[in-house]
Each structure stands twice: as C-alpha cells, then as structure tokens.
Design brief:
Layout (H helix, E strand, L loop, with lengths): L1 E3 L2 H11 L1 E7 L6 E7 L2 E7 L14 H10 L6 E5 L1
Parallel strand pairs: 4-5
Antiparallel strand pairs: 1-2, 2-3, 3-4
Amino acid sequence: MSFQTDESLARDVRKTFGEYITTFTSRGGQVRADFFRTGRVVVAHVAFPTGLDASNVTDPYVSELWNYARERGIADNFKVILS
C-alpha cells in the first residue's frame, strides 16, 4: 500500500471535490482512493482501475483507509465513496 501526492490531480479537481490531500494505491493496484477535504469533512473517492469492483477485489484497502483517517485524527469526519 502507498500514499502519494498526484500534483496534476491536485490542480485539476480542487474546485469540484475540494482540497486534494493524497492518493492511496493498494499493493496490487486493484484499488485507488483519492482523498479530498471540504471544510472539516475528508472524503476518500475509491475507484477500481483494473475493472474489478468492491465485491471481487482481493487487495486489502478498507482498513488502510480507516487507519490513515485515525492516524490523522479525521476519522470522525471521514467518508468513503465507492466509484
């Protein structure tokens, strides 16, 4: 699992989704989550770039997303949206 900044995404979508924070990519590349902040709320927009969906992905990702939120003290204002 990794978290990194995608600068082009940060510039392109700020007005639509809010302030870009980071991008999570699962170990096997089956899951990508882009994190955005609007006010106090942080939303992880989860996508499945390999064509899988939430029911058949095998890469772990849910606990990683929530661990990230807890570690940064945002879990009370954290939402996950599956694309």
